[in-house]
Design goal:
single chain, about 325 residues, mainly alpha, Lysozyme, two-stranded antiparallel sheet, 13 helices, about 70% helix, elongated, transmembrane, membrane
Length: about 325
């Protein structure tokens, strides 16, 4: 096998491996994982990904494949320029087949922004790995027989892609089940812990905002708890920076209200109470309509009502 063929095969195999990894971690969510909501069951069972897990799943496979690709290229003694070109080609091919398509299909500014972030991250991490190869010889990690390795990996990748496609067809998107009693205990413990943290920081302001707009205190608190579980403080900080971009409209603040300008947590709480105006003494069906004004997702409405019931049953607020 000539050196040029090894070069081309390495690029193609790297691209195929990145694509295979992306299929393994792909979720059937309508929105990107970073921008989607998790049910209380998923969060309580440790399934909520958050910012760290999102980055880990998106960038670790790219880094591993890029490292392996660079190791092979180093073992064949390609210079830094050719190594960089090879890695860039395989990375860009992967990006074109995944994140670029996601950008084209995206409906909101936030979805496009998340995919642009992933594109920038893939390029930066890949370039950094190649750059480090200038100072450290990766060839020690390359297989001793490059030709045999390339010949064998085609069969491995083909089998892996077939398995991925098979499991993709059979995959059940429902969250993993666990025992009923254990699930209830986990959810209650999680919600009470989050409530205690938010109570000490925002409760006086939450009560004032709810009273001024005749909003249900327990409903407003349930929304804050759920949003805080899905959007930790560091995510909200990033959102408040990104909303300054021209034409951007994101959900910001602890209450995650739509805005085209940055909002403090207190400002977002007050806006949330305005959305929930008149819900202080209304039947459950009216609460559902009020939550739908906030977010019409079925899972969102169900999770908010579930948190509200836990708050009410535990008498944490001593108010409906």
């Amino acid at each position: 096998m000539t050196i040029d063929i090894i070069y081309v095969c390495t690029v193609i195999i790297a691209f195929t491996a990145m694509l295979g990894f992306s299929l393994l971690i792909k979720r059937r969510d309508e929105r990107p994982t970073l921008n989607s909501y998790y049910t209380i069951e998923a969060i309580a069972s440790g399934e909520g990904s958050g910012f760290f897990r999102f980055n880990l799943l998106r960038f670790t496979p790219v880094c591993i494949v890029t490292f392996a690709e660079t190791s092979i290229l180093c073992s064949v003694h390609y210079n830094i320029y050719l190594r960089f070109v090879a890695v860039l080609i395989s990375t860009l091919l992967f990006i074109a087949c995944t994140y670029v398509i996601n950008i084209i299909k995206a409906f909101t500014f936030g979805e496009r922004l998340i995919n642009i972030y992933c594109i920038a991250g893939c390029i930066c991490f890949s370039s950094l790995i190649v750059y480090i190869s200038v100072f450290y010889d990766y060839s020690v990690f390359a297989p001793s027989d490059i030709e045999a390795f390339i010949d064998n990996i085609w069969g491995t990748l083909s089998s892996a892609l077939i398995l991925v496609a098979f499991f993709e067809l059979l995959r059940n998107d429902n969250h993993k089940e666990f025992e009923s009693l254990s699930a209830v205990e986990r959810k209650e413990r999680l919600i009470k812990k989050c409530f205690s943290r938010l109570y000490s920081k925002y409760y006086i302001f939450v009560r004032h905002a709810a009273s001024k707009n005749n909003a249900s205190l327990s409903l407003l608190m349930a929304i804050l708890i759920y949003e805080d579980l899905n959007r930790p403080w560091y995510i909200r900080k990033i959102e408040n920076v990104l909303v300054n971009l021209p034409g951007a409209q994101l959900t910001v603040g602890i209450a995650q209200v739509k805005s085209s300008v940055p909002l403090s947590d207190e400002e977002s709480i007050f806006k949330a109470s305005e959305i929930l105006y008149g819900t202080a003494d209304v039947p459950r069906v009216n609460l559902v309509y009020a939550i739908c004004r906030y977010n019409s997702s079925y899972s969102y409405v169900g999770s908010i009502l579930e948190i509200k019931e836990i708050l009410d049953s535990a008498n944490l607020l001593r108010l409906n």
